[in-house]
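# nightly structure sweep
# worker-07 picked up a monomer target from the shared queue
# config: single-sequence mode, recycle default, output format = structure tokens
# input follows
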Amino acid sequence: MLLLLAMLAWGEEPPEAPEEPQAPVPGAEVDVQGGEVEIIAVPAVAKARDELIQQLRAEGYTRSIRRDGETVYLHNLPYHPQVVLHDEGWIEVRRAPVRVHAPGKRFADEGSPAAYLWCLIAPPLCISPGGLVISKKKLDPLKAEVYDSTHDEVRRLNDAVAGAAMDTRIGRDIPAQMEAIWGDSAIPPEERRRRLLDLWDSRTDTPEGEAVRQAIEAFMNGVVQRSAAPFTAAELAAFEQRRTAPRPLALRPAPGATGGEDGGPG
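# output follows
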């Protein structure tokens, strides 16, 4: 029975790698050269993630397992909870599973393969049920300690991930969306201008939403207003009456023109 338990536990918890596995960094850029894909980490995110990992190691979480979308950190003491660091930048503290290891060792990758022969003779030497036998009353304070000790590092990582995602949205996603709207010659210019106005007006009333509004305004001023089909005075007046954004649209007049009704993007 114990041997069966060991085999099942081994299937759920593969041998840990001694070195920190490489995890994707949210907001990272991807560079493709000669068929090779290289992930270029956002410095702020990578730094915040490393600070969190160092704090976990200081708390005794010296081993890790890389899984799809997350990295699981294991404590030196098998009854301590495991910490799951998600690639999105948040952690989850869970009850530790049964741990299988060589006799007298803490982790599966310690000790020689021959040492596991003792597991056939005396399975209890190779099994640490730790997390399964500790009571909830004792487990909860241990989980709370992890959340408390990593609170600042997790917060900085959250902020860094959010900032990287916003930078990507403003620097890549929003411009691509505006270019797709304005560059679609199958749509009349007045409809394209209306869609851009609606895109500007639909942003949330938050600092992030305001940052996106400013990016859209920059596109309107730098591209649309300099094209052969800038916004007309009538369009802007009508939009001002229906806008829901907390402030007026900051749009410069088209150079030397009052605003045309026809034409395509310049």
